[in-house]
Amino acid sequence: MKASAYRFFTSQEISPRGWLKRQLELEAEGLCGNLDKVWPDVRDSKWIGGDREGWERVPYWLDGFIPLAYLLDNDDMKARAKHYIDRILSSQCEDGWICPNGETPREEYDIWAIHLISKVLVVWHDCTGDQRIPEVLYRMMKNFYELILADGVKIFNWGQYRWFEGFIALNFLKERYPDEAWITELAKLLKKTGTDYGAVLETWKRPLNKWTYYTHVVNLAMMLKSEAVSNALLGEEYTDIAEHFYRTLMEYNGMAAGTFTGDECLAGVSPIQGTELCGVVELMYSFEWLYACTGDAKWAERLERVAFNALPATISDDMWTHQYVQMTNQINCTTIPGKPIFRTNGSDAHVFGLEPNYGCCTANFGQGWPKLALSAFMKADDGLVNAVAIPTEVNTAWNGVPVKVTLDTSYPFRNCFTYKVYAEKKTSMKLRVRVPSFAKNVTVNGKPTAKRAQLVFGGFEAGETVIEISYETAPVLTARPNRLYTVNCGSLLFALPVESECEMREYIKQNVERKFPYCDYEICGISDWNFAFASRDLQVEEREMPSDYPFSSQNPPVVVHAALCHIDWGFEDGYDTVCAKVPNRRKALDAPQKLTLYPYGCAKLRMTEMPLVKSRE
Ligand SMILES: [Zn+2]
Questions:
Q1: Which residues place a Cβ less than 5 A from the ion ligand 1?
Q2: Helix (H, G, I), strand (E, B), or coil: what is residue 377?
Q3: In which residue ranges of the chain is pLDDT below 50?
């Protein structure tokens, strides 16, 4: 098989530090770390012998919970993960089938669950080295292959549109069983019977008020990695088709926070449409694979933009509640009376809660931060590369020499980076550091250095080598569709926070209890939001790093000061809690005032895209 540019480390080699460690601890203390205690579809799932959902929810949850447990080295969480894995493995049938389809005949069970659980078992193996996994996966995927050939399962709906998700496991198997021809045959069969996204691309150019699989935001976010995970096994040339797909999606449906709209299907470029949390974490995972496969820096920059903006924006500070969809300009998160603004989602899809609209994101959102942590550093042929500059450490070996590399930084809130390389003996290992395209005036150990896409360090002697890197970023107004603008500085997007009042809602629906801290919150905007930028002049202010919540909605670690003025901007027709897509008039109503913008990820209610008007001064 053709090697990709970089390969992933496992949680046995990478550990979080600094703010990233705190973020993962919040996730462990919040909903993801407790879902098996509070949510019936995971607690009492058919996957472990219960009577609740026996399809995607347990595997979705484990996909985040397992790496979270191992990155934090949390024994209690590890034991709870093992309990689930042991139950799943012990339920494998004689012929290899592993899914709890219960009364549903196999031919009617959507085989998306096979893809998903196969991916989770690879994650479990990466974290634990569990020696049962290769054989379990072998039997399970071979049985899947035989069932497809014999019409014992059908490929339809999610299984058809997510055909590439099983390739994580197929690549894993091919490495361990290189002579087994059926693995490649199954790969070819999945591609052949799966959806060809190139054939439906025209449908992404005009939003439909209709739910379809081929415009579904989560399918499309997952799909971007399809070539990266499959081309080596299929023996196909890599064409970077993901770039064409991504550009089309962004041109017609792009959002300022780096993702595309989908509520829950593609919804155009308006800042008041939503995008689903599952789409956010799946897009991150696709970008991680695309960067590893190609080594192309554009994918890592796109990953940062989603991870540092869209992800924290849509989950509460304490990580107990989340939205189903986030909006770029979001002045209320209150249930909409009557017809939703969203194309096919319900009226509560943007409320923060346990399972607003639908429970997929409740199970799936946990993979976002742990998988980002696991992508901070990647293995290169000549050493390692720092793909995303978040505080982490790697303990590995290079040509038999134990090596530890640490990175301490408050990036993306600061642009200073301290790398320490500890080698037991002199080593030929290289350390590659990706420098983002927006970095200016790069210095290494205090000395200015020519800007390159990657800085390469080597010649490490025994003992510790310290490398200090810094660069500058400048805040800029960036043009968006509809003659609106956003403020960006480095990877961070900034937004005007709207002050709010929050109403807690505890209730029981369909036997699922919402109870503090996993209750719902209706968040009502109470301050003015009808503003425009009055100047391109922007100032960044670095504030103290909060020790409690890295993306604190109360005390953000960095802000931008901007001059704004009121304009005539009303509500969208038919709504009194949703701002109009665009203002009524683009004329300043008063003199500019200095207001403070927060990182988008910190501002739960916000105005992000605003026009630029002539100042009345
Ligand atoms: Zn979802």
A1: 276, 278, 360-361
A2: strand
A3: 1-2
